[in-house]
Amino acid sequence: MKVELLSPAGNMEKLKAAINFGADAVYLSGKDFGLRASADNFTIEEMYEAFSLLHSKGKKGYVTVNIYARNYDFNELGFYLDQLKEVSPDALIVSDPGVFKFIRDRKIEIPIHISTQANITNYMAVKFWQQLGAERIVLARELTREEIRFIAENVKCELEVFVHGAMCISHSGRCVLSNYFNKKDSNRGECTHPCRWKYHLVEETRPGEYLPVFEDERGTYIYNSKDLCLIEHVGELIDMGIKSLKIEGRMKSSMYTAVVTGVYRQVIDAALKGEFKVDEKWIRLLNTVSNRTYTKGFYADEADESSINYKTSSYVRGSDFLGVVTAYKDGRLNFHCKGKINMGDKLQILTPDMDEFILKVDEIYDLNGEKVEFTKPNYDYFFKYDIDIPENSIIRRIL
Ligand code: SF4
């Protein structure tokens, strides 16, 4: 069975980055009813463009409709689903049994995947959804390796497992921190991430006295989970028969999507060839994109204090995203600028095959051939460069 690399697509630029760097499929959302309300997401017109591009390249796309709905949602949801039926995605990702029934009652025959938000933690729950007609189950991120293995051995349904990205400290689909603090419902895509905040303790008869909770002089972030990274375990997940390996991060940059997708493409290809050994380069590259330092989460064992980053909830970021290569011809490396580049900068170029090149900036030209001293985001420029660099390679500054 071919295993699928499934990447996040928060907008069209990220979708292109995912497919250029080796994703087999992407997941994306419309403007409503998905769980990342603050990502750019896709209009219906953009979805037509996205699916035409995906299918022309033999890739798949799944649309998230994974809110927990309220009664008042169904009118608008019906209208939206009728539009999606015309777009014809390869699957809908759903959490709510009511939404599941509504889709089937409406005779929308698009396959349904059950979202991790439905918090499926056992093989009987998988069978339950399969009996109702779900084609794939995205397992809860709170499962250990042995639990995943047991489920895989005891069901016939397609299974999808998260291998990389941010983790919730609470069980997926059961967290109400954001609802409680901000009246923003995480099960409707509005999470304000209070698990990343810094907390103090207040004794009830001493209002206003904030007692520190700290590990060291920087304080602590007691709910702040590190990010999941399971590259070491990709081979065994494939051996278990997991159909799809998923990367989290629709709100991350297109550089993040490109680098993480490119690394996992190499990991999966190596595992499929039976040559699996963790390459130090993969770890180094994963450390160049934003992360909260890495953990295996619940996979290797129950998560414990080593899964939490107590020191800071800020991202560690190892690079600045500066541009995307648009063409190479006759010694001219054309690129679309994403961040300011100055004379004298030392840049890295990373190709979709994950080859790395260094470029020292001695001259920058605008498209009229005029020399400029620095670049401005969203304009196009070129460098003179003697290596033929493939289109869609990314240009960045390693920090
Ligand atoms: S507050 Fe944190 S744990 Fe809760 S849903 Fe939001 S991101 Fe997840």
UniProtKB/TrEMBL annotation:
The record ties this protein, via Pfam families, to:
Peptidase_U32, Peptidase_U32_C
Domain Peptidase family U32 C-terminal: start-end pairs: 318-396
Sample GO molecular function, one term: peptidase activity
InterPro entries documented for this protein: Peptidase_U32, Peptidase_U32_C, RNA/ubiquinone_mod_enzymes
| Entry annotated with the keyword Hydrolase | yes
Q: Which keywords does the record carry?
A: Hydrolase, Protease
Which GO BP annotation is one of this protein's?
A: proteolysis
PANTHER family given in the database record = PEPTIDASE U32 FAMILY (PTHR30217), TRNA HYDROXYLATION PROTEIN P (PTHR30217:SF6)
Its family?
A: Belongs to the peptidase U32 family.
For this entry, the protein name equals: Peptidase U32
